[in-house]
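Student: Please help interpret what follows.
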Amino acid sequence: MNKKISLALLFIVFILSACQVNAETPTPQAEPESDAFELYLVANSQISGADLARYELDELKLAEDPLIATKDIVDYHWETQTINLSEDAYKKLMAAFSGGMPMSGLPFVITAHDERIYAGAFWSQASSLTFDGVVIWQPFDPAGAPLFITLGYPTQDFFTGEDPRYDERLKQALEDADLLR
C-alpha cells in the first residue's frame, strides 16, 4: 500500500514540477474591437415582424451570430439607406431565406459597436399584411443586389413615427469603418 502511495506522490510531484509558473507578467490582450455594423435576427422564432411594436429594443433576444457584419459590407449609401454586400455575404443571406419567410416578417436588430440602434423586419413581397416599421425586402436575386432599408410595407404610407435609420451613432460607426458613401 505504501508503495502505491509513494508512486502516486512521486507522479504528482513530477506533474507539478513540469507545470512551473512563468514569473513574468503576461501581456494583457486587447479586447477585440466590436463591429461598426451588425444585423442580428431576433432569436425568438415566436416573435414576428408584426410583433415588434410590442417590445422594447433591449427586450429582444438576438441570435448568437450576426447575419450581416461589417466585414460583409462593400459600402453603405447613407442618403438612400442602401447596403451593398460582398458576394459571399449575399449568398449567405440568400441561403438563410431559402426555406421561405413568414408572411408576417422576420425581425432583426441593427447594432453599431454592440449598441442596439433600431429593429425592423425582413419582409416578403408576397405578404398581404401591412407593416409600420423598418423593412428590408426579402433578397431574391441570386446575382446579388443592394439591400434597401425602407419604411413601411407595402409602401412608406404605412409607416408612422420617427425614422430611426439616420441615427448619428450608426452614421459615425459606418464612417469609422470607412463604409459610408
